[in-house]
Amino acid sequence: MPTLALLFFPFAMALAASSDLLTMRISNRLVLVLVAGFFIIALAVNLPLQQVAMHVTAAVIALAVGFAFFAFRWIGGGDAKLAAATTLWLGFGLTLPYLVYAALLGGVLTLALLTLRGFPLTPFLARWPWLERLHNKKSGIPYGVALAAAGLLTYSNSTIYQLLSA
After folding, report:
1. Which residues span the domain enclosing 85?
2. So where does this one cross the membrane (predicted)?
3. Could you give the number of structural domains in the chain?
4. Which residues lie below 8 Å from residue 78, measured CB to CB, with a gap of 6+?
5. Which residues have CB under 8 Å from 60's CB, separation 6+?
6. Closest CA relative to residue 150, chosen from 79, 92, 99
7. Which has the closest alpha carbon to 38: 77, 76, 81, 87?
8. Can you give the pTM of this predicted structure?
9. What residues contact 82, with CB distance under 8 A and at least 6 apart?
């Protein structure tokens, strides 16, 4: 059981990244499962209530900032919700490293996509709608990929991970 719990977060991050890459959407259901999973696993590892409250506070702040970014059309709504759910798992102590990783990875992803969009898409690759959508200059950037990767880079330092792997 501890191994399944340990892999829950990485599996959810992989689903979020692949969903955003393939469809440019991150489902509300996935975000809710990620949030519920945190509370179930936090209870299972006896995470102190005060720490749970701090994780929730960090997530609420991340959600508020994320929705401000969404209002300015800097990120999508799914990205804002995914960032908040990821912050719930990481807590205040890892929020800054998570956001730095997300910004750096998001910048690399954006530059790579903008560069690739400057080249024509071959007919072979154009057969896949998701690749065609990624190549479209009017399409956005699947920032959930960067958010998920940043979450994975930070997860092994989280309290939940430490308690599960002990």
Report:
1. 2-165
2. 26-45, 52-76, 96-119, 140-164
3. 1
4. 20, 25, 26, 27, 28, 31, 144
5. 84
6. 99
7. 87
8. 0.94
9. 16, 26, 31, 34, 144, 147, 148
